[in-house]
Each structure stands twice: as structure tokens, then as C-alpha cells.
């Protein structure tokens, strides 16, 4: 399962090994989305397509948004392609939770006054290869609030 302690990640995204290129999930998603509006995320395994043969294939792909499972697609070798498309939705609650934690304009724990509010939340894909085990990758996606106040847009540090 995705909580497995043996999950593998890219050691250096700029210098992936061939095994990493075939297993690290590639996440295609918009860089920013509006809260409440569903968006599609395509996950492909991997940058070099993984084989889908009876003795060696990708068993499933999962997508998580902000630590919550969005969906899981079970795969068969006969499907030929290790990819899945999920529909996710960011929420106003994700933005509220983030703004109490860290705003680079107002400081730690004191935001709530920015104009256009947003939060960068974590989008994580996990896949399971029947031979090489579990692999994951993640990226930040900015959720924009539909509630707009006067003032500047929130800006965020690089932390997820
Ligand atoms: Fe594999």
C-alpha cells in the first residue's frame, strides 16, 4: 500500500537512473486551479514507458491530493499502457489550513488578510511494479480561493 515504508523516490530529479525513469510516476496537472472546480490529473509510468507484460507490469496507480486518496486504478498487463487519469478537486478548507501555517507576507500563523487567497498543496502519485515495488513522486499545485478580499495575493514559500 502507499504507506509502505519501502516506497522509492527519485534521488536526483535532474539525473534519473534508467530504473527511475521507468518507475517514477510522471504527473501532468495544471499548475493552478480554482477551489471547488474539478481538474484532471494524468499519471504515466514513467518518463520511459514501463513494460506491461504478464511477468513484469505496473499493478496499480494512486493519486493523493493534500494527503487524501483521490483514486486508485488497478491495471492489467493486457492494457498495454501504465497510465491513469484522475479527477481531483481542491477545497477552500485546504487554503484555510495552509494560511494559518505560513504566509510570506504576513508571517507564520497570522495570515487571513490577503486579497486573492491560495495555497500550494501536495499532489502525489504512487505506483506499484510487480517486480520493482512501490514508487512515488509529488508536485505542488496552487489552489486559488473563490473568495476574494481587498489586498495583495498570497505568496507562498517553497515548502509543501
Ligand atoms: Fe518494473
From TrEMBL:
Keywords: Electron transport, Iron, Metal-binding, Transport. Transmembrane segments: none annotated. Residues 9-23 have a biased composition (Basic and acidic residues). Residues 17-108 form the Desulfoferrodoxin ferrous iron-binding domain. The keyword Ribosomal protein does not apply. InterPro entries: Desulfoferrodoxin_Fe-bd_dom, Desulfoferrodoxin_Fe-bd_dom_sf, Desulfoferrodoxin_SOR. SUPFAM superfamilies: Superoxide reductase-like. Belongs to the desulfoferrodoxin family. This is Desulfoferrodoxin ferrous iron-binding domain. It comes from Methanolobus tindarius DSM 2278.
Amino acid at each position: 500500500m502507499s504507506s509502505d515504508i519501502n516506497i522509492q523516490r527519485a534521488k536526483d530529479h535532474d539525473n534519473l537512473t534508467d530504473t527511475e525513469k521507468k518507475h517514477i510516476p510522471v504527473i501532468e496537472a495544471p499548475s493552478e486551479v480554482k477551489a471547488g472546480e474539478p481538474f484532471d490529473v494524468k499519471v504515466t509510468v514513467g518518463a520511459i514507458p514501463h513494460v506491461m507484460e504478464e511477468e513484469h507490469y505496473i499493478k496499480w496507480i494512486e493519486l493523493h491530493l493534500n494527503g487524501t486518496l483521490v483514486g486508485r486504478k488497478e491495471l492489467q498487463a493486457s492494457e498495454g499502457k501504465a497510465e491513469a487519469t484522475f479527477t481531483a478537486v481542491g477545497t477552500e478548507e485546504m487554503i484555510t489550513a495552509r494560511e494559518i501555517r505560513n504566509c510570506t507576507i504576513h508571517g507564520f500563523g497570522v495570515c487571513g488578510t490577503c486579497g486573492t487567497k491560495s495555497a500550494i498543496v501536495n499532489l502525489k502519485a504512487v505506483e506499484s511494479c510487480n517486480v520493482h515495488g512501490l514508487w512515488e513522486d509529488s508536485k505542488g499545485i496552487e489552489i486559488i480561493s473563490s473568495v476574494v478580499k481587498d489586498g495583495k495575493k498570497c505568496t507562498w514559500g517553497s515548502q509543501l
